[in-house]
């Protein structure tokens, strides 16, 4: 889980800088490191939506809900 958080924070920093490809890679790595990390899945969706990839974003949002139904 610590590795997942490291990837997550890297993704967040990249997202804030407008580096969406790098953010997406980091958030995906966070989700792969800890499949129960709902925030990582949510932010994969957020980046994909920002990139105009709405269908992929919807899948990521569903993964976030599956990981944490109250999310």
Q: Could you explain how this protein is built, in words?
A:
The protein is an all-alpha fold and 71 residues long. It is built from 4 helices and no strands. Helix 1 packs parallel to helix 3 and helix 2 packs antiparallel against helix 3. The chain starts with a helix and ends with a helix. 32% of the residues are buried.
Q: What is the topology?
A:
Layout: H1 2-16, H2 20-33, H3 38-50, H4 54-67
Number of strands: 0
Rg computed from alpha carbons, rounded to a whole number of angstroms: 11 Å
Overall geometry comes to flat
The sequence of SSEs as H and E is HHHH
Q: Helicity, in percent?
A: over 70%
Give the termini separation.
18 Å
Mean pLDDT level: 96
Characteristics of this structure?
mainly alpha, flat, 0% strand, 71 residues
Précis, in short:
With 71 residues, the chain is mainly α. 79% of the residues lie in helices and 0% in strands.
